[in-house]
Amino acid sequence: MVISISGYWPALAGACSSMAAPGLDWSECTKKNLVIPGSELEGANLFNADLAQTDLSSSNLRSANLEEATLVRASFAGAKAEKANFAKVEAYRSNFENAAADGASFANAELQRANFSGAQLKGANFEKAELGRANFDKADLKDVRFSLANLSRADLRTAKIDGPIVFDRAFMFLTRIEGVDLSAAQGLQQAQIDLACGDAKTKLPLGLSAPAGWPCQSE
After folding, report:
1. All residues at 6 or more sequence positions from 83 whose CB lies less than 8 Å from its CB, including other chains
2. What pTM does this model have?
């Protein structure tokens, strides 16, 4: 049996003709451009599946494996995706608005311009993720890991950061942190702050200071 590096299911073609059901195997299946909101896919294997532009809003994807799946412009709005595996997905302009994804992994994922507004992301892992211009409006980011992530122009201005959040070696070019309380953030360095966009209301960890260029000019 061939096992993926994350320890989930084998990377073999699944039962592509099967209807959505908990625990099903759609690995390497083409399921793009479908409208299947409210699907029950808890624990399903969607490894390397093509779900581009598919509507899975309000679906149950708890503990599902979507590693390396194509999720370009797919919708997971309102989905339940706690502890789901979105590692290495291609998910440009994907929609996770109001999704419940506590403990989910988005490691090494391509998430440029993704919408995470209102999402529950406590303890989620975004290590090495590409998050350029991602929207985290009112998202819960407690204990989230952004280690080595690209947060260029990502919007964190109204995110909920109640406690630790890790930015170790994250690239924060013009990352919007105006008004954000980052006093408990871990791994932040002055060089990152110098690239980001904050203001007088931004709270920084001890030892870091607001650069002279704050606030940034509007783009």
Report:
1. 62, 63, 102, 103, 104
2. 0.92
| pLDDT per position as a tens digit, 7-36 | 444 444 568 999 999 999 999 999 999 999
Contacts of 1 (CB under 8 A, 6+ apart): 10
Q: Can you tell me whether residue 193 is helix, strand or coil?
A: helix
Tokens describing residue 2: 């061939």
Phi-psi region of 53 (alpha: psi -120 to 50; beta: other; left: phi over 0): left
Show the tokens assigned to 65: 């494996």
Angle made by CA atoms 126, 87, 101, in degrees to the nearest 5: 65
Average pLDDT score over residue span 127-146: 98
Contact 142, 122 (CB under 8 A): yes
Token readout for 179 is: 């008004």
What amino acid is encoded at 26 in this protein? W
Distance CA 66, CA 60 (A): 13
Other C-beta atoms lying within 10 Å of the C-beta of residue 5: 9
